[in-house]
Amino acid sequence: MSNIVISGSGLFIPPHTISNDELIEAYNAYVEKFNADNAAAIEAGDVDALPSSSSEFVEKASGIKSRYVMYKEGMLDPERMAPVFKPALAGDEPETVTMAIAAGREAMEQANKKPEDIDLVIMGTTNHQRPYPSAAVEVQQKLGIKGFAYDMGIACSTMTFAMINAYAALKAGTAKCALVVNPEFASPQLNLKSRDSHFIFGDVATAVVMELEDTCTADYAFRVLDTKQMTTFSDNIRCDGNYTDHNFSGDQLPEDRPYFRQNGRKVFKELLPLVTGFITEQLGENHLEASDLKRMWLHQANLTMNMFAAKKLLGREPEANETPIVLDEFANTASAGSLIAFHRHKDGFESGEKGLICSFGAGYSVGSLLVEKI
Question: Where in the numbering of this chain does the Beta-ketoacyl-[acyl-carrier-protein] synthase III N-terminal domain appear (predicted)?
Fold first, then answer.
């Protein structure tokens, strides 16, 4: 059986940027107005005053300096604190489809693949804009691809899990060449009125082409040596908004229901040991150590988490090129972060040199692919 390779990758970057300074200016203006409007209730102890924030706090807490978004209008308006855009109605192309197509085309070009060469499309995203019809099938149709397509999601590990699904299909012979697309339209899920989370997400899309090594004609490709997945339930990272919400009156549902929420301290304490143990176990199963890897393309949620994990695995402070960071520019892009890092920092490998693509987060979930430059 032929080996499976990643023969191309793609990246779609949205048109707008928002710096920490811009975000904080809008947030603090909202806070000032809220506290002024509710001064009497705050004085009486009936309402909690909202705390102000700073760019320094955001960068220290997360490592994030800026983010890309599909729609900037409204996000910096203290009277709105939400992006302005039109709903995708019947016949309209959802943002996730637009983003996926753009990233997919770049991946196909890198892989020297035409639509007729591909027979599987998997669209993995944290936030699906509609339950059905499948957005993956729409991407498939608009790219002119035959075969079959489907949507999937497991929050922060969606892209690695989708790639592992593609790997399994290729190994099983149910597909010969797969396009995996990963649009993350995350900014609408931000609660821009929350000091603890308003800065976290940005929008982006990534994509990869995976195929049999025998059919690969790309100039630069990586062989998949091993895959590994793990889940264990936790609600420390969650969003509860869903298709049943219209059945309930407003006072039955909490105001923050549609938004991302997390208990950051518990996530750090519980998830990082899972991740470092998981990676150590996978490397051991392949008779490798972290020092045998040229590069680790890790999930991009928090700089401190990444540095902690890398130091734990390597037994020393990592060099910048060993665990490349993109979250300073892109913010947390849900499941796309490790693939942005891979796309941006996959060059410079010699044949036989190894790397690890790993994502982790909500679920809890961890997914990784051990790869080797062919």
Answer: 150-214
What gap in Å lies between CA 88 and CA 185, rounded to an integer? Answer: 13
Q: Is 339 a member of any domain?
A: yes
Q: Is the pLDDT of residue 248 over 90?
A: no
CATH of the domain at 269: 3.40.47.10
Q: Does any domain span residue 87?
A: no
CA separation (Å) from 360 to 60, 335, 364?
Answer: 21, 8, 7
* 187 touches 83 (CB < 8 A): yes
How much is the average pLDDT of 334-357? Answer: 98
Residue 306 lies in a domain: yes
How confident is the model at residue 217, as a pLDDT? 98
Domain assignment of residue 92, yes or no: no
Neighbour tally for 63: CB within 10 Å: 20
The angle formed by the CA atoms of residues 275, 280 and 281, to the nearest 5 degrees, is 100
Question: How far is the C-alpha of 158 from the C-alpha of 374, rounded, in Å?
Answer: 26
Selected residue with higher pLDDT from 257 and 192: 192
Q: How far is CA 143 from CA 7, 102, 149, 181, 254, in A?
A: 18, 10, 12, 12, 40
pLDDT band at 241 (very low <50, low <70, confident <90, very high): confident
Parent domain of 365: 225-373
- When divided into structural domains, the chain yields a total of 1
- Mean pLDDT throughout 160-180? 98
- Say what angle helices 55-62 and 20-37 make with each other, to 10 degrees: 120
